[in-house]
Amino acid sequence: MKLSLIRSMTRSAVFELENGLCYRPAHPFTVQLNGETVYTACETNVFSLFSLLPGTPYTVAVQAEGETLTLDFTTEAETFFVDASRYGLVADGTTDNTGKLQAALSTCPKGGTVYVPAGRYRTLRISLGKAEGKNWWCVVFPALCMPGASDLSNLPDDTDTLVREPESYEVKFKVAEIFSRLRELFDA
Question: Alpha helix (H) ranges present in the chain?
Fold first, then answer.
């Protein structure tokens, strides 16, 4: 068994317990951060730690299957902090916050953090960075991008299901399905 750091960010980090199983461990395990218990019964091989301080060294320990695995890591330094609520966001789930959230994201330089308070925010398209499609994993694995995802009560119902029951959905690529159907038509 091995404990790996997938990604360390300014205020959160993502880890994987490599135990030879695909998604869930054989038995729940305990996670400690600097000697303090964070999770008493973690039931996924990939887990996140939140509310960390930027540029700070930490030690994470996992107790699983009679073994204790430890890993030292340091969160990324934070170069800039933007509080998106100062842009007038409305967390009612109906007000269009697209322009306000995009403004907050656009003012944050590389290495900075945009803090969005817990709540339901309605937005249309949001562009991250150069909007080249390199952040697709934020859609597939929202917990990597949204530290607030640890409080599932604030997520839309369909996202809640994605986070709690990832095996209950299937990722499909509509364009690939269309091409496959067209190919079948022409091959027939």
Answer: 98-107, 137-140, 142-145, 157-164, 174-187
- What is d(CA 170, CA 178) in angstroms, rounded to the nearest whole number? 17
Residues 6+ apart with CB under 8 A from 164: 152
Residue 56: pLDDT over 80: yes
Neighbours of 55 (CB within 10 A): 12
**Residue 154 corresponds to which tokens in the numbers above?**
């604030």
The residue with greater pLDDT, 172 or 24, is: 24
What's the pLDDT score for residue 134?
Answer: 59
Answer whether residue 136 shows pLDDT above 60.
no
E strands along the chain, which residues? 2-8, 13-18, 29-33, 36-42, 46-49, 57-64, 67-74, 81-83, 92-96, 113-115, 120-122
